[in-house]
Amino acid sequence: MAMLFCSCADNYKRVGDEAIKKIFPSGIAEDFTLTYTETDRENNEDGEYPSRIISVLKSPISNDFDHLSFPYRTFPEGLKVEFFDDKGMKSTVTADFGIIYSQTNLIDLRGNVVIKTDDGKMLESHQIYWDRKNDWIFTQEKFKYTNPEEGTVMDGEGMDFNRSFSFLHANRTYGIMSIKEKKDD
């Protein structure tokens, strides 16, 4: 009888997809909304500290993997983020999928990524990374950048820029660009 139980051990070595450990989120949120605020810590006479909204992130689903050794949060059904500057002007970012890496402050946006600023500038790409710590955005994918102020439509591959689009560095560009000349009076 003892030999029968010993011979039933599973000695099969797992390979391929079977060997991958399944990872489950520690939490799942539906109709997820996260509002980031900033508080002005200067002393006020009333003792109150006014705050303002910095950004609002919305997503149908948010999966929280903060229990892992390298924590992150995913947005498998897409996301929309609205950013507000000091003057209340709004910029919007949308994507089909997103990951926020907690330790590195890096955000990975994928699939139909669109960034629109309040003044009409727009960047479209398949994938964009945003370094929150340095407030720097970059991609190595193909992109399309539209600037209605200058009448510019630029296509290219690989770009890095700041969030306000006041500094752009494109690796390879092609498209329609107009150059405004200053007239001497």
Tags for this entry?
single chain; 185 residues; mainly beta; six-stranded antiparallel β-barrel; 55% strand
Overview of this structure, please?
The chain is mainly beta. The protein contains 1 helix and 11 strands; from the N terminus they run αβββββββββββ. It has one helix at 2-6, and strands at residues 27-39, 51-64, 72-75, 79-84, 90-95, 97-101, 106-116, 122-131, 136-147, 152-162, 168-176. The protein has a 6-stranded antiparallel barrel with strand order 2-3-6-7-5-4. The mean pLDDT is 83.
Low-confidence stretches: none
Q: Count all strands and give the number.
A: 11
Helix-strand makeup class: mainly beta
Radius of gyration: 24 Å
> Main sheet: which strands, in order across?
2-3-6-7-5-4
Helix-strand layout with pairing:
Elements: H1 2-6, E1 27-39, E2 51-64, E3 72-75, E4 79-84, E5 90-95, E6 97-101, E7 106-116, E8 122-131, E9 136-147, E10 152-162, E11 168-176
Antiparallel strand pairs: 1-2, 2-3, 2-4, 3-6, 4-5, 5-7, 6-7, 7-8, 8-9, 9-10, 10-11
Could you give a short description of this structure?
This protein is mostly beta strands and 185 residues long. It is built from 1 helix and 11 strands, in the order H-E-E-E-E-E-E-E-E-E-E-E.
